[in-house]
């Protein structure tokens, strides 16, 4: 278990660039966002700092850095989403897709154990009326499809982040890094909830500082969760590896192949027999 003192000593100095860039962002843009290149750069600076932070904690293709690689990739796609949302009229949908990919990658990092189906059921029950409430406010059919899917991915990410904490399981020692990750997931939901309500339904007072503060806090919590992850075998063992995905696809392919192979073989044999029978018939007709 990583102690609080260890976290502060190890994480603090490396996060100075992040806090400085966040401070600069709110000094320059305290109340509203803008759609220009300079704002895009200032907005993405904290994300760049978090990417560097993850790299500074160790990064390679070995198994013990499986979790860190997933978090790094999720942060990168989140930064792409940040850049897209700077120009919402042109790239809003692309921003939603980028953040959706980030949540999928976070999901593969958090794994699927322990399942915690009760929390998943509670989030599902909560999300259904919220989704039904939003649908009439969405402007086109693309948003009516993408937004509910994104909401499902966001809540799934929250489900997995909280489930891996196991704070109420006395047999498992929870860590400060997992707690930060869970808090980050909650902040992500708050940030996106305020953003979506402000964007689709009704302007929210001080929406810009609320959205950005909770968003940066969310990504900070998720990024901090990589601390000492290289030494935690359990964390990396729960990561959904690319080999797992490839093997899953291969099993599906083999299953479908076993079902349709005999039928396809019969069709091929039937076509060959028809072709053979047609040749003598054509010669007889000419004669």
Describe the structure concisely for a colleague.
This protein has 287 residues and is an all-alpha fold. It has helices at residues 4-11, 16-28, 37-56, 66-85, 88-110, 117-134, 141-163, 176-201, 207-224, 233-238, 242-286. It contains eleven helices and no strands.
In DSSP terms, counting alpha (H) and pi (I) runs of 4 or more, how many helices? 11
Order of helices and strands: HHHHHHHHHHH
Mean pLDDT figure: 84
Shape: globular
Distance between the termini: 91 Å
Please give the largest β-sheet. none
**Helix-and-strand structural type:** mainly alpha
Strand content: under 5%
Q: Tell how many strands the DSSP assignment holds.
A: 0
The residue fraction in helices comes out at over 70%
Please tell me about this protein's structure.
The chain is mainly alpha-helical. The chain is 77% helix and 0% strand. The chain contains eleven helices and no strands. The chain is globular, with a radius of gyration of 25 Å. The C terminus is likely disordered.
């Amino acid at each position: 278990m990583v102690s609080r003192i260890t976290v502060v000593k190890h994480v603090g100095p490396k996060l100075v660039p992040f806090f400085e860039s966040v401070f600069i962002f709110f000094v320059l843009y305290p109340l509203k966002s803008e759609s220009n290149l300079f704002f895009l750069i200032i907005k993405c600076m904290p994300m760049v700092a978090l990417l560097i932070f993850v790299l500074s904690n160790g990064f390679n293709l070995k198994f013990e850095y499986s979790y860190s690689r997933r978090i790094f990739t999720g942060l990168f796609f989140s930064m792409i989403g940040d850049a897209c949302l700077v120009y919402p009229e042109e790239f809003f949908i692309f921003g939603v897709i980028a953040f959706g990919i980030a949540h999928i990658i976070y999901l593969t990092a958090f794994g699927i154990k322990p399942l915690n189906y009760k929390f998943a059921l509670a989030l599902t029950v909560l999300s259904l009326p919220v989704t039904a409430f939003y649908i009439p406010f969405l402007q086109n059919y693309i948003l009516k499809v993408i937004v509910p899917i994104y909401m499902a991915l966001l809540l799934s990410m929250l489900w997995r982040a909280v489930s891996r904490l196991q704070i109420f399981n006395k047999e498992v020692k929870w860590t400060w890094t997992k707690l930060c990750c869970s808090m980050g997931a909650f902040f992500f939901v708050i940030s996106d909830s305020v953003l979506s309500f402000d964007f689709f339904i009704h302007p929210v007072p001080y929406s810009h500082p609320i959205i950005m503060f909770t968003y940066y806090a969310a990504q900070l919590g998720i990024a901090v969760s990589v601390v000492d992850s290289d030494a935690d075998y359990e964390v990396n063992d729960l990561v959904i590896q690319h080999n797992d995905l490839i093997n899953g696809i291969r099993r599906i392919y083999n299953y479908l192949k076993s079902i349709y192979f005999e039928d396809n073989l019969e069709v091929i044999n039937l076509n060959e027999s028809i072709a053979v029978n047609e040749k003598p018939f054509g010669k007889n007709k000419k004669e």
